[in-house]
Write a structure and sequence with these properties.
heterodimer, A: 290 residues, mainly alpha, B: 276 residues, 13 helices, globular
């Protein structure tokens, strides 16, 4: 009797959250699917008509789609590579005996808390400006020509900024994982005469495999839809050079007001994200049992 | 001999760690310095690092010219409001899943997590049109609502992992002593849950404060929080580097402080307990 009451109470407490999230998941998605099958442009009201899969054909065969898909993959891949290749040694370094470690850790983690629009604009202007930026001055000191970052290597510039934002995240997670590594295991390996390098390869790296996977999955989910950094620095340009899928959909929806085609693009983005999400949910779920 | 090696290692790793830490932090430091320069000095080549004419003039101008406080207030209301509402919805839900789990609890949790995986851009069109229809574009309540929904899965997850750690025996003991559910909640559970509640609150304030997809797309002026206000410097006004820096410093300072307090919870919150 009491248990039944408790269960009823438990269900009542859970309902609002489940209902809200259910609506949040279903309604916009259903509308996106519906709009994706329409010819629907906000600049041309009253002309809505059913066109089947025409929007998908249009979106997927648009050269801008291939370009933006490529940019998205390059951006995600590069930022992942940079943050993990730099994050592992950085986490190892912070796991050593360091005087003033708490201050160093604060400095390392700080970029993650800077809002995206601020990081993007500070990097673009104060650091990367071809004439008055700090990088230009440093290049000048070494007698090198200044680089016009956002014209000569726009996508790379965006990647650089985003990597700076996400390096702290990767480092912090890897560091947390390192700190849970059994010291005795490492000491035993050292006693047996293992070199620092083989200790790293055979003990530390396998221990980091899981956190690295988690970093890859979570970063991918956020990086697939990078928007603000592109919005305030390049606006997707020059040409399409920094347009990713998210920015392409945005420009079709809110600049060209092409609701149908933007919706089709939105669904493509949902499918892409779900491929990643599938693996992440499995990893998290496995952890839930333990 | 061994001691000497450890001391030397310690010196080397300390020096390396400080150098790397400084390099990573440098862009923020450089921005803060620029905010105290005059526009001419902020632009100057070669740049001056410390020996320039320090001025707080930019901070005054930013407020006077662009009504900085209006946007800061929007940020506070939107981030605070969405976080509080999300907490109110999430506490009972996380509570019930942690203390009366059923066979389906795990599936419900994973399903909630999967709603967070939906890329916002996938539903930009319908949300924009719904907001336009109901006059919610550029309103604070519209932003509060969407940010609340966006962060709800994370809030529930974090709270769930914290509640899960509260030993169940204590509840049973209280029940044995004849405590009602209400008393149990107020006197036994709340004190134990406060640290978890606080960290969840903190992390979600940070996430909501820095959110820059929905805020950029759904607000322009009236309801625009600081993310959008800063973005307005990307236009020709971006030439005013000292003012951009002053506005940016003000925008990130409070969150940097909160963030430093919550760095441990960050890992937990953003990995959904997959890394502890």
């Amino acid at each position: 009797m009491a248990t039944q009451q408790t269960q009823l109470l438990a269900r009542t407490l859970l309902t609002p959250a489940v209902a809200l999230l259910f609506i949040w998941m279903i309604v916009p998605l259903a509308l996106t699917i519906y709009f994706a099958t329409l010819h629907y442009n906000l600049l041309d009201p009253g002309s809505e008509s059913f066109v089947g899969l025409e929007n998908f054909r249009y979106f997927l065969t648009d050269p801008a789609f291939l370009a933006s898909l490529q940019n998205t993959l390059v951006l995600v891949g590069s930022v992942l590579a940079i943050t993990i290749i730099l994050g592992v040694p950085l986490a190892l370094l912070l796991d050593q005996q360091v005087v003033g470690l708490s201050i160093v850790r604060l400095m390392v983690i700080a970029p993650f808390f800077v809002m995206p629009t601020v990081s993007a604009l500070v990097w673009k202007n104060l650091l990367m400006h071809p004439v008055s930026g700090l990088f230009a001055w440093i290049a000048q000191l070494f007698g090198l020509p200044a680089i016009d970052w956002f014209n000569d290597a726009p996508l790379f510039s965006v990647i650089l900024i985003i990597s700076w934002q996400w390096l702290p995240f990767a480092t912090l997670i890897l560091l947390t994982a390192l700190q849970s590594l059994d010291e005795e295991q490492k000491e035993a390996a050292e006693m047996d005469g293992a070199s620092a390098i083989s200790t790293f390869i055979y003990i530390t790296l396998p221990h980091l495999a899981r956190p690295i996977t988690v970093v890859i999955l979570i970063e991918t989910i956020f990086l697939l839809t990078v928007f603000a950094e592109i919005f305030v620095t390049t606006g997707g340009g020059p040409g399409l050079q920094t347009t990713n899928i998210a920015f392409l959909i945005y420009s079709q929806a809110l600049i060209q007001y092409d609701v149908g085609s933007a919706s089709a693009g939105g669904l493509v983005a949902v499918v892409l994200a779900n491929i990643v999400a599938f693996f992440l949910v499995r990893i998290v779920g496995r952890n839930l049992e333990a | 001999m061994a001691r000497m090696v450890t001391t030397r290692n310690k010196v080397i790793s300390t020096a390396a760690a400080w150098l790397v830490g400084f390099l990573i932090f440098f862009p923020i430091l450089w921005m803060v310095l620029a905010s105290f320069k005059t526009e001419l000095e902020a632009f100057a080549i070669p740049p001056s690092f410390l020996f320039f004419h320090w001025t707080t003039e930019n901070y005054v101008t930013v407020q006077e010219r662009s009504d900085y406080l209006h946007h800061a207030l929007n940020s506070i209301i939107i981030a605070g409001g969405s976080t509080l509402i999300a907490m109110l919805i999430a506490i009972p839900a996380a509570w019930s899943m942690a203390f009366s789990p059923t066979k389906r609890t795990k599936d419900v949790l994973l399903w909630m997590l999967s709603t967070k995986m939906m890329p916002p851009v996938g539903v930009l069109v319908p949300i924009y049109l719904i907001y336009r229809t109901f006059g919610l574009l550029d309103t604070r309540s519209g932003l509060i609502f969407i940010l609340c929904l966006g962060n709800l899965p994370i809030v529930i997850w974090m709270l769930f992992t914290y509640f899960k750690e509260i030993p169940k025996d204590i509840l049973e003991a209280a029940r044995m002593d004849g405590a009602t559910i209400g008393r149990e909640l107020i006197y036994v559970l709340t004190p134990m849950a406060v640290p978890g509640l606080a960290s969840t609150l903190l992390l979600n304030l940070i996430l909501a404060w820095n959110e820059a997809f929905w805020t950029l797309n759904l607000s322009t002026l009236e309801a625009a929080p600081l993310t959008v206000f800063i973005a307005s410097y990307s236009s020709p006004e971006g030439l005013f580097w000292a003012k951009l820096s002053a506005a940016s410093t003000l925008a990130i300072a409070p969150i940097l402080v909160l963030g430093w307090f919550s760095q441990r919870q960050l890992v937990r919150g953003l990995t959904f307990g997959a890394v502890k």
